[in-house]
Amino acid sequence: MDRMVESQAPVLEMLWEPRDSRQVLEERFGFADGSGAARWVAATVDEHWGVRVDRCERIVMSGGNALAWVTTSSGRLLVKWSVIPDRFPRLAETARLTGWLHDRGLPVSAPVPARDGRLQVEAGLVSIGVQREITGDLLDTRDPGRVRTAGAALARLQDALAVYPDADRIPGAALSPLPFEDRITGWLASSADHLPEVRSTLRERVAGAPPGRFPAQLVHFDFRSANILCKGGEIVAILDFEEARREPPLFELARAAVLLGTRYHNWGPAPAEVHEEFVAGYESERPLTPAEGEWLDILLLWQALEMVPPGADPTGWGASALDLSRRPDVRSRDGRPSRAIGARCYK
Questions:
Q1: For the chain, which ranges sit under pLDDT 70?
Q2: For residue 343, what pLDDT is reported?
Q3: pLDDT, position 265
Q4: Looking at residue 218, which CATH number applies to its domain?
Q5: Which residue range(s) make up the domain with 260?
Q6: Are 85 and 122 in contact, with CB atoms under 8 Å apart?
Q7: Contact 108, 157 (CB under 8 A)
Q8: What's the whole-model pTM score?
Q9: Smallest Cα–Cα separation from 227: which of 238, 236, 219, 235?
Q10: pLDDT score at 191
Q11: Which Pfam families match (predicted)?
Q12: Least CB-packed of 166, 192, 269, 346 within 10 Å?
């Protein structure tokens, strides 16, 4: 019996790669056309979740991952699968992590358990999971209120991840990163030598900073517009925990601020004003110490500089890094530099 009520072929799309979607579907995923992929999705969801798919509307591909939007009698679902075996253990563990966060009230897209209770199922040569669709708009960094709300959401997420009991089970998450000064000086020594003025400023700031060894914990590490769904004034879902790793929360804050506006194409930097709003929201939940505030400026500059391409720079990463390098230090009463992006000094 056909497991789908409607047999109309789904729309095929690439998330960010400039490739022909039909060719990718066949080369990477083994389906001659969208209809064949849709039938496989319906059969697999029926077999392992006991859910009848009425229609597969859309399939979006990225790397070795595919995401299908399907309609069922119990609502719309997202079916995501991977054909990269090395990623299967991580996918299983991040599914467990997402379920744990959902149980504690965090705004995430929780996995739907299969018939046997698994949150991520290995079926043949793929690893597949199912989630319920959450409706919302991707974070718009032109909205200061939403940016602040996103900063606060990141802080709360970090608080939850700090006590996740199975963090060491996520592949690679048990590694302890080097102190910031070692990481940045090592990067400066090995990377391209474009923007010498900015590189010199970064080197000087690292040399004058306090010790950059901060406790590491499990963090999301891909917190940006493409993975943040909003509705009204709320964050309704933080998506895609596949990059979760062990890092100091401060590093994730800086990286998220720099990349906050990025989606799928034409990545460009968030303005310094967005950094300010985002960090203000974060500090409403997780205030920074003076040492963290000083290192935040350095990390913002490093992350912006790291994004500058060696050739053409159509989205302005170089200009962003140059602007951050020229923002003046503001000294607090005890003589320590405060965050250049902050509206207040540390006492």
A1: 1-7, 174, 329-347
A2: 36
A3: 86
A4: 3.90.1200.10
A5: 138-338
A6: no
A7: no
A8: 0.92
A9: 238
A10: 87
A11: APH
A12: 192
